[in-house]
């Protein structure tokens, strides 16, 4: 992957506030930020994600790129599995991430609701989850999540 020219898998575009408190993505001529300027900062350069939403986006990108070491490193030690086995699993193609809601209920606790779309063997799938995050020592970690069935 050419980190300087490839769009980031998380698809992030800048958000601008509009009157009445609604949010709208700023129009973009491409599909979002370049990987090096977006999630590459966290996956490759070791920067700490400043919010739970940014961590969620970087974790989606890690899944899309098969970066198990990053996923485990950003998972709370209280709930982290020993392995995800990504190298031995058949991978689908991650298509799109939509963050529906990000709420920080306390300085060190947050939740992110998202929908991730992907394909396995040509069949489309949708993962809708409400994820919980905790900040420890100034760093956000994924704790766990509830899958929303629709």
What would you say this structure looks like, in words?
The chain has 150 residues and is an alpha+beta fold. It has one domain: Nuclear Transport Factor 2, Chain: A (Roll). Helices cover 16% and strands 37% of the residues. The chain contains three helices and six strands. The strands form two sheets. A four-stranded antiparallel beta sheet has the order 3-4-5-6, covered by helices on one side. A two-stranded antiparallel sheet has the order 1-2. The longest helix is centred in the middle third of the chain and has 14 residues, at 52-65. The termini are far apart.
Give a summary of the structure in a few sentences.
16% of the residues lie in helices and 37% in strands. The protein has 150 residues and is α+β, with helices and mostly antiparallel strands. Residues 51-145 form the YchJ-like middle NTF2-like domain.
- Strand content is 35-45%
Query: Helicity level, as a percent range?
Result: 10-25%
Order of helices and strands: EEHHHEEEE
CATH architect. name: Roll
Separation of the first and last Cα atoms? 35 Å
Q: Can you tell me the CATH class?
A: Alpha Beta
Whole-number count of domains: 1
The residue-averaged pLDDT reads 86
Biggest sheet overview: 4 strands, antiparallel
Rg from C-alpha positions?
A: 15 Å
What is the β-strand count?
6
- Structural shape: globular
- Helix run count: 3
Structural class: alpha+beta
Strand line-up across the major sheet: 3-4-5-6
Protein name: SEC-C motif-containing protein
Domain YchJ-like middle NTF2-like: 51-145
Pfam family, one: YchJ_M-like
């Amino acid at each position: 992957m050419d980190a300087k020219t490839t769009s980031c898998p998380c698809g992030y575009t800048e958000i601008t506030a509009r009157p009445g408190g609604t949010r709208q993505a700023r129009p973009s001529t491409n599909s979002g930020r370049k990987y090096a300027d977006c999630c590459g900062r966290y996956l490759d350069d070791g920067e700490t994600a400043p919010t739970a939403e940014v961590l969620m986006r970087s974790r989606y990108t890690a899944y899309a790129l098969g970066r198990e070491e990053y996923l485990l490193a950003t998972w709370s030690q209280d709930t982290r599995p020993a392995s995800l086995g990504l190298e031995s699993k058949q991978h689908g193609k991650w298509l799109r991430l939509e963050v529906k809601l990000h709420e920080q209920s306390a300085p060190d606790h947050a939740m992110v609701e998202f929908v991730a779309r992907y394909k396995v063997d040509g069949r489309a799938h949708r993962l809708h989850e409400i994820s919980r995050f905790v900040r420890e020592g100034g760093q956000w970690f994924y704790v766990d999540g509830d899958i929303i069935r629709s």
